[in-house]
Specification:
Blueprint lengths: L8 E5 L6 H11 L8 E5 L5 H11 L4 E4 L16 H6 L4 E4 L2 H7 L3 H13 L3 E6 L3 H5 L3 H12 L11 E5 L13 H18 L2 H6 L2 E4 L4 H8 L6 E4 L6 H9 L2 H4 L3
Parallel strand pairs: 1-2, 1-8, 2-3, 3-4, 4-5, 5-6, 6-7, 7-8
Helix pairs in contact: 1-2, 1-11, 7-8, 10-11
The structure holds 2-phosphoglycolic acid.
Amino acid sequence: MSTGDRKPFVGGNWKMNTDSEGARALIGGVGGIGGGDAEVVVYPPFPYLREVAADISSQGSRVVLGAQDFRHEPNGAMTGCVSIDMLKDCSVSSVLTGHSERRHVIGETDSLINAKTKAALDAGMQVVLCIGELLEQREAGQTDAVNERQLRAGLEGVDEGSLDRVVIAYEPVWAIGTGKTATSADAQDAHAKIRSVLASMYSKEAAGKMRILYGGSVKPGNAEELFSMPDIDGGLIGGASLNAEDFGAIVSATRASIKRG
Ligand code: PGA
């Protein structure tokens, strides 16, 4: 499958970390990174979105601002929730859906994840749809079946015309924040199967253009090997995105995936 069209993508998911000062220091450190041969997006906690947006703009940075979550209804009686329009108002243009912590800690279902994915796409956002198996599912040989189910459910009703704003992140749950990483061969195998499911849902051409990221304990020391795999187009980074130097090194490692294009 041709890989030449896919611009590498690195997302930094700060999760429930940093404070105001720390968020500004972090964007100060990573602001110079984006805009080259890789697309770089950071996902700070909600309270710091405006500060990070202002710093991105004053630095003239090409790092893109993302948000970790949102509610799919436009407005109304939804205590504690944040709408897509509110995010747009804070200069957010990319969102995560289906992250394993929202699936398995907060309890989001496939149908809620699908509603969010569609609402964000309808609003013109980029969506990073996260999928991946639990350890027991992996041990039971269900990795590909879980990925296929989450992919089909997450993208139900999403038409091919919106796919240029969809990025898939394969994140085996047992590898997130644990220091354990899938081997590059296992990750490549899962990514190739994900791409073939996308080809069967849409078309081979559309699937060939989609970015599929790996996530789960990506560090400067393993990024290059992972990103050099033919179907791995970058990463969604948690822990290592909280250190500007490490995050920068991971973004630089996407050179390994550009080479093949
Ligand atoms: P990690 O998190 O890099 O800390 O494993 C990845 C993620 O949750 O996206």
